[in-house]
TrEMBL record:
One of its GO terms (molecular function) is sequence-specific DNA binding. The keyword Transcription regulation applies. Residues 278-379 form the HTH araC/xylS-type domain. Transmembrane segments: none annotated. PANTHER family: HTH-TYPE DNA-BINDING TRANSCRIPTIONAL ACTIVATOR EUTR, HTH-TYPE TRANSCRIPTIONAL ACTIVATOR RHAS-RELATED. Keywords: DNA-binding, Transcription, Transcription regulation. SMART domains: HTH_ARAC. Coiled coil: none annotated. InterPro entries: AraC_XylS_family_regulators, Homeodomain-like_sf, HTH_AraC, HTH_AraC-typ_CS, Tscrpt_reg_AraC-type_HTH. This is Helix-turn-helix domain-containing protein. It holds the Pfam family HTH_18. The keyword DNA-binding applies.
């Protein structure tokens, strides 16, 4: 096999890129990953080429000697989907109307995981990646204006960043797809140094939204999608290992083209809004004989109705009462599907969560979840 070396200008790379000349016209796709800069042809039957690349660039596999797996999981309930991502602590609540469907494709090993998550309905999510990691979330193109990350709207073509061991929130729109790449912090720092010869930016060590050029964002989503599709077809451990390494490097190469504007953390106003929503959310997650009112919240939080409304719109893209009602309906749904609520009647569970009128409860429940409480109770318990 013959190799041609080329150096891509303007990328800050220190290495040449081996090009697999024999397969240039036969590969499934061309992709900028793992030293395979633009022009590197790669196909499913060309693992020898990729291993040669790794040797040329003297890069250690990210998960050498660690068990590796690819899984696809399907969900018909937001709470079920919250448990899908390996090693994460999560809580999801469905907040838009209709039957829920979701899917997770995940390729993971000890120090790195790559996944694609889809949800058909709007959700409010509290997420915590595994300790010591850094999560990069890449919303697919067309995510919609209603996407919120940590209580703030997300700019187009963004990569979301959050530290492992700490909570962040997502308020996702209908028909939402997001790619995720999660690495140990030390591994990320080492990989960045290998690729670029310098330390990684400090913005990657805090909750932030890093904006990419639109073309780079589109290319990254396409690359990660193709890598996961190829992983599904590749039972070979070495092949999947290379795909994981390629995913991490595709992310780093895309982030190297980030625009100067970075949305980091929350300002004081956004922080207050987030605190109001979180306090109200905690109240809504406690059983109560009556529903919370706007007056109750304004009195407890010492804010006006207008201020409360603006804060909820910023963080959740919803008004306070519909949001809190949806959270409580999700709590009833969890009990209907768990042994904990098996001994109580549907009416009793509804009353315990502030739904005093059975007909109103049944209407609201069916409208949100696309099925009756009785149909939910007939589902397998969790």
């Amino acid at each position: 096999m013959q190799w041609a070396l080329r150096l891509e200008s303007g990328t800050g790379m220190r290495h040449g890129a081996p090009v697999c000349a024999p397969r240039r016209g036969n590969c499934r796709f061309t992709i900028a990953i793992t030293g395979c800069w633009p022009g590197m042809a790669w196909c499913a039957s060309c693992w020898d080429c990729l291993q040669q690349v790794k040797q040329e660039l003297a890069m250690e596999p990210l998960g050498h000697g660690i068990a590796l797996q690819f899984v696809t999981r399907l969900a018909e309930d937001a709470a079920d989907q919250a448990a899908f991502i390996s090693g994460w602590q999560q809580d999801y609540a469905q907040i838009s109307c209709g039957l829920f469907s979701g899917r997770l494709d995940e390729l993971c090993l000890g120090r790195l995981q790559v996944f694609r998550e889809y949800s058909a309905r709007e959700t409010f999510q509290l997420c915590q990646p595994w300790p010591g990691s850094i999560w990069f979330g890449i919303p697919a193109p067309g995510s919609g204006e209603r996407l919120r990350f940590h209580g703030r709207s997300v700019p187009p073509a963004a990569v979301l960043v959050a530290m492992g061991g700490s909570d962040f929130s997502l308020r996702t729109p209908d028909d939402f797809t997001i790619y995720g790449v999660v690495l140990e912090q030390a591994v990320l720092q080492q990989r960045h140094l290998q690729l670029f010869g310098r330390d990684m930016p400090g913005a990657w060590l805090q909750t932030a939204a890093v904006q990419l050029p639109q073309a780079s964002h589109l290319a990254l989503c396409r690359q990660l999608g193709e890598l996961l599709a190829l992983a599904r077809e590749t039972p070979d451990r070495i092949g999947r290992q290379l795909l994981l390494d390629c995913s991490a490097d595709a992310l780093l190469l895309a982030l190297a083209q980030a625009l100067p504007t970075t949305l980091a953390g929350r300002d004081s106003s956004s922080q207050r809004h987030w605190q109001w929503v979180e306090q109200a959310r905690q109240r809504a997650l406690q059983p109560a004989a009556r529903q919370l009112t706007v007056e109750d919240l304004c009195r407890e939080l010492h804010v006006t109705r207008r201020t409360l409304q603006n804060g909820f719109q910023e963080v959740t893209a919803m008004s306070p009462l519909p949001f809190l009602r949806a959270l409580r309906l999700n709590q009833v749904r969890r009990l209907l599907r768990s042994p904990q609520g098996a001994a109580d009647s549907i009416q009793q569970l509804a009353e315990d969560w502030g739904f005093a009128t059975p007909s109103h409860f049944s209407y609201d429940y069916r409208r949100l979840f696309g099925e009756t409480p009785s149909q939910t109770r007939q589902r397998p318990q969790r």
